[in-house]
Amino acid sequence: MKFGVAERYRLEIYWSKAVYKKEGEAILVGCCMAGPVIKEIDQMEQEDSISLDFSNQYRIFVPQHYIVKLSWKGVSHTPTKIYLDNVILSNKFTNSVPKLNNNDFIVVDTKDHTDTKHEYHLTYPAYLVSRDGNLHNFREK
Alpha-carbon distance 10 to 75, whole Å? Predict the structure, then answer.
């Protein structure tokens, strides 16, 4: 993959199916988090959200356009994965980009996370990765 996320801080978000029922929302069915940083996560709130900033994946920056909210209601842990229930990826521009494929996944860079800095507002650099392991090309239709 051609982007600079250190392995230690890498968090991956997978889903089995993305469902679009209304404008600005993608429901991620069968969603889980994995990656090396999982072993550092002590606990997660059962109902919470984080913001994912995809602007590093674009050549043109449009404020707030590429920041999406990932929210969930329900969490279960295993030593290698965190399973999330009732997951919604939302932003008023969510449907303006190509639909998420079932084999796509999101890579999140947690390097700059601190409990004091992110206690109330979690925003992380993120990248949408296609099934072939390359960054998703949003110019393709």
Answer: 19
Report if pTM > 0.70.
Answer: yes
Helix or strand (DSSP H, E) at 38: none
Per-residue pLDDT tens over the stretch 83-96 = 999 999 988 765 55
Give the CA distances from residue 48 to residues 51, 68, 101, in Å, rounded to whole numbers and listed in that order.
Answer: 11, 14, 24
Cβ burial, residue 140 (10 Å; 0-12/13-18/19+): exposed
**Tokens at 85, concatenated:** 């229930």
| Number of Cβ within a 10 Å radius of residue 113 | 17
Q: Are 27 and 18 in contact (CB under 8 A)?
A: yes
Partners of 108 in the β-ladder: 11, 126
What is the rounded CA–CA span in Å between residue 133 and residue 122?
A: 26
